[in-house]
Amino acid sequence: MFLKLILAATLTASAETPEEIIERARQAQSIDNAVQQIRMVMVSRSGSERTRELEMRTRRDGEILSSYARFSHPADVAGTQLVMVDHPNQVDEQMLYLPALQRVHRIGGKARSGAFMGSDFSYEDLEVSSASSATHTLLSEDDTLWTIETIPGADSSYSRIVSHVSKSDFIPRKIEYFDQRGDPFKLLEVLSVANDNGSTIPTRSQMRNLKKGTSTILEIQEYRLNVPLDEIPEETFTAAFMERNG
Amino acid sequence: MLFALLGFEALAAGVETTVVVSSDVAIDSHSQRADEDTVEAYTRLHARTRGPEGRWFLSLNGTHTVLLGEDHEVYWTLEPGESGWNHPIGAQQVRAGLLVERWGRLDLLPVLDVLNGRDLRQGPLTPPERIRIPAPMAQIQFNSWNPRVEVSWLPFSSLNRISYSGTDWSLLQQGMLTGLLSEASMWEGDALTTSTGQQSLAAINTLIDGALPAQERSLNHILSADALPANGLNGDLAIRMETSVQRIDMGVVGGWMQSRTSASTLPSVLLPYLQNERLPNFDEQEELYSAAENSIGPIRPAGAFAGGEINGIVGMVGVRAEGIWEQRVVVTQQWMQASVSPRVQGAIGLDWSRGTNFLISAEARWSHLLESVPNMWLMTSDHIQLAATLNLMTMSDRIAIQTSSIYDITFSEMLLQPSIRWRIDDQYEVGIGGLILSGASPVPTRFLDAMIFQGGPLGYWSFNDNFIVSVKRIW
């Protein structure tokens, strides 16, 4: 969902069914090509903070959306890289490069439910597409928001997800995640957005782990949208590129 | 140069600079050898700067070493880390400099990761990121091809670094050489040689016994003399082809390279005296003196190699497999002898992970020498090892619990290396850990016992059980 939020774009057409709303939300989150500088602040239960900085690059090739993230700070995680390739109606492909081991590690299955670099985001939260097995139900709507319940596929670590999607731009403003027992687990909120040539960019978001009392704030410090493709070649999303850039 | 660049970080957009200083103090839990170090303290600096898009990268590795034992020793080293230039030329990519190129994805029991030499001087106390020694290398990568092709040229080859003498991780540990001379000064030859021989050896022993630890350590420079061919063909050439199909990564490698091991050998003419613990007779001395002119002959063969790897996810389990055939590898033998044999190795690893916060991994490796070599030392014709790793990160990556273990089935030996680290804040991390080694064969304390040791590498250094305290400062 982190990726969903930072790839936001404005779409103003109306939609009726929950499936259409979710699909439009998915489209809204899939800007073609972008480079972003992101700051991630992890806040412990006691309130102490730790900061990580990363650059994220995204590229769209038809229905396939590829993302590449590289951490640059602090020193002991600098060089850590993550590639996510979003195939429509398939579980995403994820690869992680750890500089200490100097090797690429493919992430699959339950690994996707693990925390992303110590944050309150899981790898599953980073995915753009919903698996085709997910079902969506419109719970309610008002003048500004649709509230949609998603029952994800068996591969998910969540039993259900409730998204509060803005009617103006199809960007979820709040997402509630429930664990396998049905208890509230995590809460994602968009704290601020920016508008750029008709696109809506969530510049500050917070994921709270309601069980642990921890939270992670994501701030987009700089971004460039619609960058030329030769700046983000296809090779960026390969294990070889990650190994070379550790 | 590097620190000058550090100062310009704020001025240069896209330049990334990182510095980490870590200090590991290993305290020997109980002494099993008279001369072993009770405390080893390694303070390691790693400074790195990287240009925009990784077009260039410079790094520096420093190590300050304190060894406290019967002799105290303090010294430091500073050397370049991975540093080079990385640039696209059309669809191709060219890299050159001091590079590290890792092949294969096995961590504890790798077989395909042969391109860079390894730093083995501090045994398992060497952090994983310091094990591979950056080597002068030029690479061209044909990224637009499928399979992707990468050609690597190492003009000056690369060599493992091992310690021959003077530390707890040496092949000959502290006191072994002087112990040998002390014993030899009581051996007997014939009537003409016994007295003078004993006196000479006693005098040499006194001389070496009084030497500074650093002087004894300098023996390493003599014993680790390289044996690259004099014709200038000292380099390595390797090619790798790789592709991914249905999220399965496959690669094949092949090439020609110098052995990463250079084994120093004693001339065979010396062996009867060491094995029979006697001095040479008068009529044997001429042959002995002429042999001494080439007293330590290093063996470092060159040969072809070919291998492959396949990695993917089966269900929820990551599967990594790799294998290699090497035409000529050094085989160490008893009494500081060495031979050469072709070898095949295969390994498989299985892992299950949950993001970056939990990983459990198991690996197995089998090595087989294709030619029979007698009296092998720390090696065997068929060698099977198992390994396991557990990594757990909790409390938002503030607490890291890690355990690595290796069980050597062939030699019935074991290594266990647990640790727990606490990340206090963005700048500081502290940790405690341990290193436990055990072997079936008794640890040799005399030179003559070491030369005929029957066990494997874990058992040979199994006196090095340590309790470890770590502090890390991060910029």
Give a quick set of tags describing it.
heterodimer; A: mainly beta; outer membrane lipoprotein receptor (LolB), chain A; 13-stranded antiparallel beta sheet; 13 strands; 11% helix; disordered N terminus; B: 475 residues; mainly beta; 18-stranded antiparallel beta barrel; two-stranded antiparallel sheet; 10 helices
List the topology elements.
The complex is a heterodimer of chains A (246) and B (475).
Chain A: H1 2-6, H2 18-28, E1 34-43, E2 49-61, E3 64-73, E4 81-86, E5 93-98, E6 103-107, H3 123-126, E7 135-141, E8 145-151, E9 160-166, E10 172-178, E11 184-196, E12 199-209, E13 214-225, H4 239-244
Antiparallel strand pairs in A: 1-2, 1-13, 2-3, 3-4, 4-5, 5-6, 7-8, 8-9, 9-10, 10-11, 11-12, 12-13
Chain B: H1 2-7, E1 16-28, E2 39-50, E3 56-68, E4 72-80, E5 83-89, E6 92-99, H2 128-131, E7 135-142, E8 148-154, H3 176-184, H4 194-209, H5 213-217, H6 219-223, E9 236-245, E10 248-258, E11 263-265, H7 271-276, H8 285-292, E12 297-299, E13 302-314, E14 317-333, E15 337-354, E16 358-369, E17 382-394, E18 399-408, E19 413-423, E20 428-438, H9 447-450, H10 457-460, E21 466-474
Antiparallel strand pairs in B: 1-2, 1-21, 2-3, 3-4, 3-5, 5-6, 6-7, 7-8, 8-9, 9-10, 10-13, 11-12, 13-14, 14-15, 15-16, 16-17, 17-18, 18-19, 19-20, 20-21
Helix pairs in contact in B: 3-4
